Every structure is written in C-alpha cells, then in structure tokens.
Amino acid sequence: MKSQKFPIAAVRACAYSDSVSKTHYDIIISGGGMIGSSLACTLGKNTRLSNKRILLLEAGKEKSYSFTGKYSNRVVSLNPATHKLLNDINAWSHIKNSRFAAVKRLQVWDAISDACITFGDENAIEDISYIVENDLLLDAVSKELKNVNNVEVIYNTRAKEYSLPLHNEDKVQITLENGSSITCSLLLGCDGFNSHVRKAMQTQYVTWNYNQMGIVATMELSEEIQNVIAWQRFLPTGPIAFLPLNSKQSSLVWSTVPDEAKKLLQISEAEFVDAINGAMYQTYQHSNIIDTATKIFDNFVRFFNWPVDMSRRYPPKISRIEEGSRAAFPLGFGHAASYISKGVALVGDAAHRIHPLAGQGVNLGFGDIICLNEVLGNAVSCGSVINDLSYLKEYETQRQRYNVPTMLGVDGLYRLYNNDFAPVVLLRSLGLQATHAINPVKDKVIDWAS
C-alpha cells in the first residue's frame, strides 16, 4: 500500500548551509522556533543519541539578535524546570551574559473583591521564575546549537508535502519546494499551533478562541525599584500583568476583549499609560455580602494563626511606554487528541495551546522536550529503534497526564475570573484566601507551576 501524502503550505527549515546535505536522517525537527531549536540542541547533546543524525528545518530566515538597550515586547516566564534544562544544554550561559530578570515574588489579586494571594519572598534566595525575551532565548539556543556536531540546521526551505509511513513502511518522506526529497525515521512537529505536521497526522484537534486579545508593551516605571515582583490583577475583562525586566522597566501582558484591545492600540501613548495605571489601581464597586464574607473568613484564618495577606504590596506606577512596543495577538485554546503517530510526534504548541494568564504555555513545551529527550534516550539504550511506537506512546502518556490537567486548570481559571456574577466572585475570593492560608495547598500550586 502506498503511503498517504498530505499537501502543506510549508515545512520548516533552517540552516548553517544552503541545502540539505543528506537524504535520510534519524530525526527531522520541523520548526526552528524556541521549542524546535531547544529540542534540537537537547537531543544533539544527549550522549545516548550521539550517533543519530538530526536535521532542524525552519521555513523562515535565520534571525539575528543584536543586544541593545531596547527590550523586545515579547517575553516568556520560565519556571525552574525550564531554567534547569537551558542550563544543562549551556544555553543559559548566553542568556546570563546578556540579560534576564529573576522573579522572587508573585502577587495575584481580584479587582472586584480584592482577595489576594502571594508566592515567594523578594528577599529569598530561590527564584520563582525568570523573565527572558523570546528573541534572546532563541539566539542563546541557536548559538549553542553551533557547538553540536550531529545536528544540521537549514533555513529558508519549504516543503510541498509529507508522506507518513503506513503499515510496514518505516520512513517519513518530505518533499521540498525545490523538488528534492528527504526522509527520516522520526519526524518531530514543533511548528506551532497551526502545525502542518499535526494536520498531516489527521489527529483530532480540539480548539476554541477566547474572544480576547493579549496586549504587550515595554513599560518604564515612575521610579527605580528593586523590581523582583511579578504582579497580576484579574479585571472583569481579563487579567493584566507586570513582569520585571530591570530596576526601571517591566513588560506588560494585558488580556482583554477585542473591542477594548483595539481601542488601547489606537489611543495615544499618554492615554495608554493612564489606562495601564487605571487597570492596576482602579477601585471597583464591592458587594457588601462579599466584603462581609471575606472579612469573616479572614478572621477565621487569624484565629488559627494561618497566613493572611498582611504582606500585600502595591504595584509600581508606569510613567511611559517604549515607543513602538505596543502590539496584540489573539488568544485561544487547542489540544491534539494524539501527540504521536507512526514515525511522528508533536511537541509544544503543535500539540497544545493555552491562555497566557498562568505563564505556563512555553513551559509545557519545554516539559515536552525534557520528557521526549529522556524517552528517546531510553529507547536507544535498550536497543530499540528511534521511532519505536511503544516509547513514543510513553512520551504521549506522560505529557498528556500533566498537560491536560494543567490546561483544564488554566481554562477553568479564565472562566472563573471572566465572570462578575456575585456568587462566583464570592466563591473564587474565598478560594483564593483559602489557598493563600493553607500552606500544603499553596505548596501544591507552586509545585504544579514549577
């Protein structure tokens, strides 16, 4: 039986050469973004995979990063597990020599009820997360990739079709736009939430839009501060967050409804700054019932000497934004029913997409990398082939057991806070107070996020 062929708009490619130097590879990684490049570097540095030929394909041009005083408006919040991975592959050394911000404390609160929860301590040794510009992270991994001997990287190469293996076949064939073909034993799809690899797999994909836009910008603070706290306030229209960059600047991530987003993109910079400060400080009308219930619960907590939010801080005021740094992007949810098929596996946004309110999207992708690297290493160590379906199934099972609850939890938070119905506000406010007061529950949340 002939293998199935699926037309695609583009297959990723990227390179330190202008053309493919081999016709068959053990592994081809489709997509040279943060996840694809990090996966290539991680697999290339896995000593158990040192004899495997790996190709990283990226359809776009090789990005050049120039270190300047101006920050990019797109940043990621990396949890300790992701930080460890980047450190293990030596990419973190390049980031460390450039710039990043360590988050020591996180404060989250409800704009309607003022219920609050905090994590960490600004004077602690341990960091909660690390704020890094997307472009800088990609540049750091790309630099380290050049030190990996068994990984070839090619840019500006597109594909016309994928031919996925069926039954007794054991190779994936990729036909490029120039008419040439390459094959691999294992294709790894890291080509984003519109993944062509996923479409070629014909797996079911559950997706919906949140009817929200994420607005980003680089902000200048009104005064120089220690700036090691990440702030997030849940507004009736969506959460707004300040992520530290340095003692004078923070990055904005503001999720709101499309009409408001369009307005915020069109108003003057001075008006936009006023809107940001208003979103963080505006007082909303409180319900007497909710205020009474939260005070009663607060007294209950004090009676048992449990932690209360006495350590609440106030976020910094914003004086201006970096010119030209305002931008917006649509927010949505997506999850592939299957992460694997014969000779294929999905990684990162190709497999799952979530709301940015918990800062877990990219960390789920790096979690995929950690797991897949271990699974493929185990397969080779046990004398199996690199595309052994039983090992790929282990990857899928492990990651879905973590990703699905996390995604549903984040989606639940979005829906819980995108509601100003008084009983719902009361429920979430008491839940926030309880989570803050009960240390074992709070520790579980921290473990989940890291």
Provide an overview of this structure:
There is one protein chain. The strands form 3 sheets. Strands 1, 2, 3, 4, 10, 11, 12, 13, 20 and 21 form a 10-stranded mixed beta sheet that branches. The protein has a single domain (4-64, 71-449), classed as FAD/NAD(P)-binding domain (3-Layer(bba) Sandwich), CATH 3.50.50. It is globular. Strand 7 (105-110) and strand 8 form a beta hairpin. It is an alpha+beta fold and 450 residues long. It has helices spanning 34-44, 80-88, 91-96, 134-145, 196-201, 258-266, 269-281, 288-303, 361-381, 389-417, 422-437, 439-449; strands at 4-7, 14-15, 24-30, 54-57, 75-78, 101-103, 105-110, 116-120, 129-133, 151-155, 159-164, 172-176, 181-189, 205-221, 229-235, 238-244, 249-256, 318-321, 327-336, 340-341, 344-346, 352-353. The two termini are 46 Å apart. It contains 12 helices and 22 strands.
Secondary-structure map:
Elements: E1 4-7, E2 14-15, E3 24-30, H1 34-44, E4 54-57, E5 75-78, H2 80-88, H3 91-96, E6 101-103, E7 105-110, E8 116-120, E9 129-133, H4 134-145, E10 151-155, E11 159-164, E12 172-176, E13 181-189, H5 196-201, E14 205-221, E15 229-235, E16 238-244, E17 249-256, H6 258-266, H7 269-281, H8 288-303, E18 318-321, E19 327-336, E20 340-341, E21 344-346, E22 352-353, H9 361-381, H10 389-417, H11 422-437, H12 439-449
Parallel strand pairs: 3-4, 3-13, 4-10, 7-15, 13-21
Antiparallel strand pairs: 1-11, 2-10, 5-9, 6-9, 7-8, 11-12, 12-13, 14-17, 14-18, 14-19, 15-16, 16-17, 19-22, 20-21
